[in-house]
């Protein structure tokens, strides 16, 4: 009961029409502690029908590319767009005339959504919804992003994070709605505002208590001698494409995965936010066993509270040996530079050392060599290791692997063993776990030179000592 009351308070100010099924599921699932999602099996967002986007700017032309892409990422087909170059109208954001025009168009196109680029106040949302046809839901930019995240969240932890992000978004709005008299209902436990604040507190505690399988998994894998590489960067830059190229065996899914993410095959699509949770695949880089993790793409103008809610995926970067920052070389140069700066500062915030970052200028197949060079220089001003490449065509892929390998922690050692079965068994283990630079047979002994993660080399040396000790007995 309480849940419904909460739900209503959260939706009164923001969602004039009811939330989607998956929105409901994500909310109720976390409130009751059940694992419930109404996703379809493919994990994709169901097509929801048509949408109209509207954007306001201070001068023409008003940019609509990203809001259109976001709307498509949410599962809508954009049928029309309206732009407005006028100061913000306090009542409707867009102005009465424009709203009337949009309403007529929404009627004709049977639009299921009106997406306004920017932030709407609760009053504006209510007013806009009242003027649109009944079936047209009204979203602002952040509500739309939250809806995408809610639908894509597969695991319990991600679902809780999404709900927390939604509530953080709702809280100031609920307060504003209450102040404006749009909301004066009290629930049995208090005011809607305090109910939501309580839920935020509860969720934060719950998230703190939940074990983070990703962390445990990483620690174990590190012990086992895997190097950890994380792919980061803006949405649509080509991270998942690169993961496909780096991974060992994408067609095979592990029957008993050590971690739920490990079965995942990262989806590649020319759509924003295709990857909303991390996916990890095995790869062999310079003969070293590596785990490569694909992460959620950054998006321009993502508010801080939203970034915070997805800190877990960013923390993948912090615990990696190497972070490959994938930059979209097909972006216009100004945008390329701006996004690179934001990406690097996000990594800085996560305490990723610049030395551990390899910047890839991706999609060079889309640019002339002069344009590629311009972008390479911009990247080289900011990071020591820069590779220009095409993930989809494989151009310079080897250079990227070399650049990553050069940054993996390593220790070089020469191991001398008495020749025999034991030595051969250790040698085959070494081939699996480190780079074997040379093997020399000198009759009674085998001299092996290896290069690999310090923890693995230490393990190999201990095994070699044990073999030598047994041979002496
Ligand atoms: N021309 C060209 N297109 C590429 C290249 N690499 C990736 N793409 C395309 O760019 C689009 C986005 O690629 P993804 O790999 O899904 O991008 P992503 O960074 O994983 O995106 P998110 O999961 O949304 O963060 C797809 O259409 C890819 O085919 C490239 O080197 N050249
Ligand atoms: Mg992806």
From TrEMBL:
<dbReference type="InterPro" id="IPR042108">
    <property type="entry name" value="GTPase_HflX_N_sf"/>
</dbReference>
<feature type="region of interest" description="Disordered">
    <location>
        <begin position="1"/>
        <end position="45"/>
    </location>
</feature>
<dbReference type="GO" id="GO:0046872">
    <property type="term" value="F:metal ion binding"/>
</dbReference>
<dbReference type="InterPro" id="IPR006073">
    <property type="entry name" value="GTP-bd"/>
</dbReference>
<feature type="binding site">
    <location>
        <position position="275"/>
    </location>
    <ligand>
        <name>Mg(2+)</name>
    </ligand>
</feature>
<dbReference type="Pfam" id="PF01926">
    <property type="entry name" value="MMR_HSR1"/>
</dbReference>
<feature type="binding site">
    <location>
        <begin position="294"/>
        <end position="297"/>
    </location>
    <ligand>
        <name>GTP</name>
    </ligand>
</feature>
<dbReference type="InterPro" id="IPR025121">
    <property type="entry name" value="GTPase_HflX_N"/>
</dbReference>
<keyword id="KW-0479">Metal-binding</keyword>
<dbReference type="InterPro" id="IPR016496">
    <property type="entry name" value="GTPase_HflX"/>
</dbReference>
<feature type="binding site">
    <location>
        <position position="240"/>
    </location>
    <ligand>
        <name>Mg(2+)</name>
    </ligand>
</feature>
<dbReference type="GO" id="GO:0003924">
    <property type="term" value="F:GTPase activity"/>
</dbReference>
<dbReference type="GO" id="GO:0043022">
    <property type="term" value="F:ribosome binding"/>
</dbReference>
<feature type="domain" description="Hflx-type G">
    <location>
        <begin position="227"/>
        <end position="412"/>
    </location>
</feature>
<comment type="subunit">
    <text>Monomer. Associates with the 50S ribosomal subunit.</text>
</comment>
<comment type="similarity">
    <text>Belongs to the TRAFAC class OBG-HflX-like GTPase superfamily. HflX GTPase family.</text>
</comment>
<keyword id="KW-0963">Cytoplasm</keyword>
<feature type="binding site">
    <location>
        <begin position="233"/>
        <end position="240"/>
    </location>
    <ligand>
        <name>GTP</name>
    </ligand>
</feature>
<dbReference type="Pfam" id="PF13167">
    <property type="entry name" value="GTP-bdg_N"/>
</dbReference>
<feature type="compositionally biased region" description="Polar residues">
    <location>
        <begin position="7"/>
        <end position="35"/>
    </location>
</feature>
<comment type="function">
    <text>GTPase that associates with the 50S ribosomal subunit and may have a role during protein synthesis or ribosome biogenesis.</text>
</comment>
<dbReference type="InterPro" id="IPR030394">
    <property type="entry name" value="G_HFLX_dom"/>
</dbReference>
<dbReference type="InterPro" id="IPR027417">
    <property type="entry name" value="P-loop_NTPase"/>
</dbReference>
<dbReference type="GO" id="GO:0005525">
    <property type="term" value="F:GTP binding"/>
</dbReference>
<keyword id="KW-0547">Nucleotide-binding</keyword>
<feature type="binding site">
    <location>
        <begin position="362"/>
        <end position="365"/>
    </location>
    <ligand>
        <name>GTP</name>
    </ligand>
</feature>
<keyword id="KW-0342">GTP-binding</keyword>
<protein>
    <recommendedName>
        <fullName>GTPase HflX</fullName>
    </recommendedName>
</protein>
<dbReference type="GO" id="GO:0005737">
    <property type="term" value="C:cytoplasm"/>
</dbReference>
<keyword id="KW-0460">Magnesium</keyword>
């Amino acid at each position: 009961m309480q849940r419904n009351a909460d739900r209503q308070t959260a939706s009164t100010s923001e969602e004039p029409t009811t939330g989607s099924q998956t929105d409901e599921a994500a909310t109720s699932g976390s409130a009751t502690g059940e694992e419930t999602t109404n996703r379809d099996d493919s994990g994709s967002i169901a097509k929801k029908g048509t949408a109209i986007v509207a954007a306001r700017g201070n001068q023409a032309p008003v940019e609509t590319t990203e809001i259109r892409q976001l709307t498509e990422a949410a599962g809508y087909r954009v049928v029309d767009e309206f732009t407005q170059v006028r100061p913000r109208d306090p009542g409707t954001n867009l102005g009465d005339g424009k709203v009337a025009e949009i309403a007529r168009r929404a009627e004709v196109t049977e639009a299921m959504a009106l997406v306004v680029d920017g932030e709407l106040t609760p009053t504006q949302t209510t007013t806009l919804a009242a003027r649109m046809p009944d079936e047209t839901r009204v979203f602002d930019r952040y509500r739309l992003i939250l809806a995408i995240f809610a639908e894509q969240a597969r695991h319990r932890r991600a679902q809780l994070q999404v709900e927390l992000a939604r509530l953080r978004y709702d809280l100031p709005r609920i307060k504003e709605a209450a102040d404006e008299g749009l909301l004066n209902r009290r629930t049995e436990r208090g005011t809607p505002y305090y109910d939501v604040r309580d839920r935020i507190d509860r969720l934060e505690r719950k998230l703190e208590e939940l074990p983070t399988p990703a962390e445990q998994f990483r620690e174990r894998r590190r012990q086992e001698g895997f190097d950890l590489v994380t792919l980061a960067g803006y949405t649509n830059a080509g991270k998942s494409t690169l993961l496909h190229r780096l991974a060992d065996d994408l067609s095979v899914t592990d029957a008993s995965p050590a971690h739920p993410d490990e079965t995942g095959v990262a989806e590649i699509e020319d759509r924003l936010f295709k990857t909303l949770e991390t996916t990890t695949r095995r790869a062999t880089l310079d003969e070293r066993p590596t785990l490569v993790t694909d992460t959620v793409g950054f998006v321009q103008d993502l508010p801080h509270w939203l970034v915070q809610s997805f800190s877990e995926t960013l923390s993948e970067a912090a615990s990696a040996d190497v972070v490959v920052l994938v930059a979209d070389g097909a972006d216009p140069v100004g945008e390329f530079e701006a996004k690179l700066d934001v990406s690097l500062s996000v990594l800085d915030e996560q305490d990723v050392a610049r030395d551990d970052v390899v910047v890839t200028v991706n999609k060079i197949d889309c640019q002339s060599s002069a344009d590629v060079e311009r972008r390479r220089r911009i990247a080289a001003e900011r990071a020591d290791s820069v590779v220009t490449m095409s993930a989809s065509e494989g151009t310079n892929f080897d250079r990227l692997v070399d650049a990553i390998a050069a940054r993996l922690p390593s220790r070089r050692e020469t191991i001398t063993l008495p020749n025999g079965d034991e030595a051969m068994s250790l040698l085959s283990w070494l081939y699996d776990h480190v780079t074997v630079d040379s093997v020399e047979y000198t009759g009674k002994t085998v001299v092996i030179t290896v290069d690999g993660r310090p923890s693995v080399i230490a393990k190999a040396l201990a095994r070699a000592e044990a073999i030598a000790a047994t041979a002496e007995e």
